[in-house]
């Protein structure tokens, strides 16, 4: 009986593993789940896929989605994109993303009355009340 349980255990253990690691540069890539890429330049399309099952064991949908996003973010670096937009839901372990260049730096906060050159030594101050 133990001979039959070992393959089952191995399939379950392997199915729970995360195979894809996020590259350092890909950490800066954002995913626009809201679909808002207005004002961005289209850099192309990224199609990625991972195993959604191991033998008869189906992997967690959340893990599959996470790995697909990680792979897409890794690919976006080579395309000089800083934003991804899912073009649909994952199907059989595959998903496509639009890659966009939207400007990597978020806009600086603007507070009325704060001088433009308020940054000194990495510190920025703003008045609490005017």
From TrEMBL:
Alphabetized InterPro entries for the sequence: DUF4156
Region spans: Disordered: 103-130
One protein family per Pfam: DUF4156
UniProt name for this protein: DUF4156 domain-containing protein
Organism whose genome encodes this protein: Pseudolysobacter antarcticus
